[in-house]
Amino acid sequence: MADVIIDNVEKTFFDKENKSSFTVFKDITTEIKSGEFVSLLGPSGCGKSTLLNIIAGLEQPTNGIINVGTKKVKEPGPDRGVVFQESALMPWLTVLDNVMFGLRKKMKKEEAKERAKYFLKLVHLSKFIDSYPHELSGGMKQRVSIARTLALDPDILLMDEPFGALDEQTRSMLHKEVQYIWEKTQKTIVFVTHNIRESILLSDRIVLMGTRPGRIVEIFDVPLDRPRKPSSKQFGELEERIQQKLAREIEKVMREEMGDDYNSKKGALLYHSDRNMGNNI
Ligand SMILES: Nc1ncnc2c1ncn2[C@@H]1O[C@H](COP(=O)(O)OP(=O)(O)OP(=O)(O)O)[C@@H](O)[C@H]1O
């Protein structure tokens, strides 16, 4: 188990054809402690996924360093597992075989099978091990995807809007599931979301990112007992504080994108914390 140290990270994309460049963010510095649950929250385009991909080693930072423990992140590694919004299961394999797939190179078939079964039980899918992905709901597919990643035993679970494409009910069920998994496995979780309520429900800390320029606006501690109730006073107060900070960031984006149109439509565009941000407003 190891801390994730993000030190002065910048990401600039270069467009060689148009000879232009675009800095998504810079000076991102923070530390995620081993075993912590941290959400990256912010308006669309502020670079949440880009930062997650850099931690995963799928993208390189333009400047700065990310260390996991004492090791510099240069590429993907077994210490970090990623769960994306789309489950990307192999449709021709059963649920069990999907989870076993990544394990087959590391251990004997029987051992891989037992391990895959254990993690499918952890996500409450024991009854569906012989099903094929097309027979599962979106939420179930996402649980297979989580089991597949957990089976590889990463120290750090990187989740990029894993429940973003799911309906409210399923999402709520998976919130409970992910909290159970986190408590049971003690993994470090970095969780990208658009949703303030989701971030308060799940995290120890919320890193609120802003845009233009991309940066960390504020880091919020969430000192609430679990399981958390959105109806509680402290939950509501924190939600309000984050919402206000975020509204300013979103207003900035909309002003730039809409120009004169912004003032006339401002009332209708007011932000609500349980809705998605940015593009879906
Ligand atoms: N490979 C790339 N090349 C060029 N620009 C990119 C690339 N990947 C991301 N970007 C740009 O970087 C910015 C940040 O993207 P990113 O997906 O990280 O934001 P985000 O905060 O996760 O947004 P969302 O919440 O909408 O998913 C966006 O403007 C995006 O267009």
From TrEMBL:
Q: List where the protein spans the membrane.
A: none
| Keywords assigned by UniProt, alphabetized | ATP-binding, Nucleotide-binding, Translocase, Transport
- Annotated Gene Ontology MF terms? ATP binding; ATP hydrolysis activity
Please state every residue range assigned to the domain named ABC transporter.
4-236
What name does the UniProt record give this protein? NitT/TauT family transport system ATP-binding protein
Q: List, alphabetically, the SUPFAM superfamilies matched.
A: P-loop containing nucleoside triphosphate hydrolases (SSF52540)
Q: What Pfam families does UniProt report for this protein, alphabetically?
A: ABC_tran
Query: Whose protein is this, by species?
Result: Alteribacillus bidgolensis
Q: Which PANTHER family match?
A: ALIPHATIC SULFONATES IMPORT ATP-BINDING PROTEIN SSUB (PTHR42788:SF13), TAURINE IMPORT ATP-BINDING PROTEIN-RELATED (PTHR42788)
